[in-house]
Write a structure and sequence with these properties.
It contains twelve helices and nine strands. The chain is elongated, with a radius of gyration of 21 Å. It has 280 residues and is α/β, with parallel strands linked by helices. The strands form two sheets. A seven-stranded mixed β-sheet has the order 4-3-2-5-6-9-7. A two-stranded antiparallel ribbon has the order 1-8. The mean pLDDT is 94.
Length: 280
């Protein structure tokens, strides 16, 4: 295949800043992303933001089927060339964030997401998959390095936040590769990392996932405030009710949200659910 830059120029493609387009052309990097994802000839892959199709091609050579999503129809002639000769790729020009995931999953069954995600939609897309998907088995996604660290953070660290706790409810995240900005075209302003999230539904026992999400949202409402103050402000509890909930969950009365592990969030969510204070 021709040099990626030459193909893009031949088809008159112009990068659109609003779509956060930074394409990968390094063959070794593409191969390592595919290997890290653990996909094989039995795997259905969903790629979000397929761009010029370089990762798409590498995925298709390893997987059973690839559904490649992109929002930019101007990439159509580029993809026709970069994906030529492949019969197991379906390119879908739709905004994945607006997709009815339940209907789509009924069509394709279980799948793995592998993607070089546009930075501006990373957290919303991961959240969508966490909250709406029944069939996704894992995610291997290239994201901004600081976002990767946030996804994998542990409690009591500055990086730990609501998205960390949301991921931990459904699976385990780890950084599998650090990627310098020099391996992208055009070159972004930040370095990246590949994060792998292996789904393990039920790893954190909780009575209601929505209650867990509300509890996490409450805890990080204001990072500088204690958990007690956030409970009072978010759920409109009395001071006594907040103290009681914290005590029942076995949490220190002066704790802040970032000190709670996902398991402790689950305990607190169950307590709040039993108290009947949830906004579900």
């Amino acid at each position: 295949m021709q040099d990626l830059r030459s193909i893009l120029e031949k088809h008159g493609f112009h990068f659109k800043k609003q779509f956060g387009q930074n394409f990968i052309s390094d063959t070794n990097l593409l191969r390592s992303i595919v290997e890290a994802s653990g996909i094989d000839k039995n795997t259905t892959v969903v790629e979000i933001g397929c761009g010029a199709g370089t990762l798409t091609r590498a995925l298709a050579e390893a997987a059973k089927k690839v559904y490649a999503f992109d929002i930019d129809r101007d990439l159509q002639p580029v993809l026709a060339e970069t994906l030529a000769g492949l019969d197991n790729v379906e390119v879908i020009f739709r905004d994945f964030s607006k997709l009815n995931l339940k209907e789509f999953e009924e069509e394709i069954g279980e799948y793995t997401v592998v993607a070089n995600l546009p930075y501006y939609i990373t957290t919303p897309l991961v959240t969508k998959l966490l909250e709406e998907s029944d069939k996704v088995q894992g995610l291997s996604v290239m994201v901004q390095e600081e976002v990767a660290d946030r996804f994998c953070a542990k409690e009591n660290t500055a990086e730990y936040g609501s998205i960390t706790a949301a991921i931990a409810l459904k699976g385990v995240a780890k950084v599998v590769k650090r990627v310098p900005r020099t391996l992208f075209y055009p070159r972004p302003n930040v370095d990246s990392a590949v994060v792998k999230i292996e789904f393990d539904r039920g790893r954190v026992a909780v009575k209601d996932e929505r209650a867990y999400r509300q509890t996490v949202k409450c805890a990080f409402l204001n990072r500088r405030k204690t958990l007690e103050n956030n409970l009072v402000n978010f759920f409109k509890l009395t001071r006594e009710q907040a103290k009681s909930a914290i005590a029942q969950a076995g949490v220190d009365e002066k704790a802040r949200g970032e000190t709670l592990s996902p398991y402790t969030f689950a305990k607190l969510a169950d307590v709040l659910l039993d108290m009947g204070v949830m906004k579900l």
